[in-house]
Amino acid sequence: MSLRESKMVEITRENLTQFNNEGFFVAKGLLDPEIDLGPIKAEYKEVLDNAVSDLQARGIIKNNYMELPFEKRISQVLEESDGELNKYLDITLPQKDINSQTPMHCGPAAFNLIRNSKLLDAVEQFIGSEIYSNPTQHVRIKPPAHYLAGTTRVLSEIDTTVWHQDAGTGTSDADHTNTLTVWISVTEASIENGCLMVAPKSHRKGLALHCHDKRANYSRQSIPERLIGEDREPIETSPGDVIFLSKYTMHSSLPNLSENIRWSLDLRYNPIGQPTGRAWFPGFIARSKSKPESEMNDPSIWKMSWERARENLTRTPPSSFQRWSEDDPNCA
Questions:
Q1: Which has fewest Cβ within 10 Å: 4, 68, 79, 244?
Q2: CA-CA distance, 135 to 276, in Å (whole number)?
Q3: In which region does residue 137 sit, left (phi positive, over 0), alpha (psi from -120 to 50) or beta (all else)?
Q4: Residue 213 to residue 83: CA distance in whole angstroms
Q5: pLDDT tens, position by position, 255-276
Q6: CA dist 175 to 71, 115, 169, 200, Å?
């Protein structure tokens, strides 16, 4: 099969039934590892080069590790920068301490992946043809755990993701929004290297309590063990596989105990006109069958929207993402 003959994967009625019953569905081979994911991998080599130069200029790292291959280099820089590199890689802004120089990545390959036609064709089956790109979006490059052993961010999102629901990571105005999480496997994700874990059927319980995670050295909330249940399933994926998740599906990830990175993106989409849960961040119309002229198709405009948001948030800090107080009596 040539690069231009990649197969098309359709979302069937049976797939949607599984999603509704289980709270998730895995579309194997939805994206082509070379055609669809090749550009994002190439773009991130340049992202890493630029980030390393800036981190060196800031005195955060001493070595540029140019002699290392991409996977080893990114892991080494994450370790030496105490996780600071992660800000340069993500396609969003942090929760707090935003200034005019806060790094983020808004490159054309990232934008084109968000608007990928095969991805949107699949999303359309879940939420309809009027599709808004929700600004809650992340690039996750998880290094081997031993690179983080000496860092203060060892329990952060670059190591493991705690049990949570995506509905719990945005403001309450989006509680009635039909938000769909789209988790894209850029590299292989296995039990060994820290794949996603889901609690099947947990979406039927609605929004669960999230408590402050006292193990973390930064603000993070997770679902108490007693609320998750015993049914927990690791989802191993290959490059190009896509996991669709309900906003109420409880999920987490395992630590990376391999020698290579585990790389994924998690994007979110919702019907146009519904609140995103992060009103201070910019989303855009990714697809509209009724008003195709309203679609954003210029990555430079998308990038500028995030730069404007950063300037605005430098003056007026964003609202807290946290839905529950740290002293909630139900967390005792």
A1: 4
A2: 7
A3: beta
A4: 19
A5: 999 999 999 999 999 999 999 9
A6: 38, 25, 11, 21
User: Does residue 2 come out as left (phi exceeding 0), alpha (psi in the -120 to 50 range) or beta?
Assistant: beta
Residue tagged 């140019």 (tokens): 66
CB under 8 Å to 205, separation ≥6 — which residues?
Answer: 227, 248
- What pLDDT does residue 154 have? 44
Residues paired with residue 81 on neighbouring β-strands, in sequence order: none
| C-alpha distances in Å from residue 324, one per residue of 97, 222, 330 | 20, 10, 10
Give the separation between CA 97 and CA 141, rounded to whole angstroms. Answer: 22
Percentage of residues in the chain having pLDDT higher than 90: 81
Continuous H helices in the chain? 13-22, 38-57, 70-80, 85-89, 108-114, 117-127, 225-228, 299-315
What type of residue is 155? L
Per-residue pLDDT tens over the stretch 67-106: 999 999 999 999 999 889 999 999 999 888 899 999 999 9
Following DSSP, what letter does each residue of 189-230 receive, concatenated?
B-TTTT-EEE-TTGGGG-SPP-EE-TTSSS--EE--HHHH-S
Residue 234: is its pLDDT beyond 70? yes
Mean pLDDT of 310-331: 86
Q: What is the pLDDT of residues 202-226, one digit of tens each?
A: 999 999 999 987 665 455 789 999 9
Of 133, 97, 136, 103, nearest to 318 by C-alpha is 97
Q: Which two tokens stand for residue 167?
A: 């509905």
Looking only at Cα atoms, what is the longest distance across the chain? 59
What average pLDDT does the chain have? 92
Q: How far apart are CA 201 and CA 231, in angstroms?
A: 9
- Calculate the CA dihedral of residues 193, 10, 137, 299 and round it to 10 degrees: 120
| H/E stretch holding 28 | none
pLDDT reported for residue 159: 67
Q: Tokens 């509905």 appear where?
A: 167
The alpha-carbon radius of gyration of the chain (Å, integer) is 19
What's the rounded mean pLDDT across residues 178-191? 98
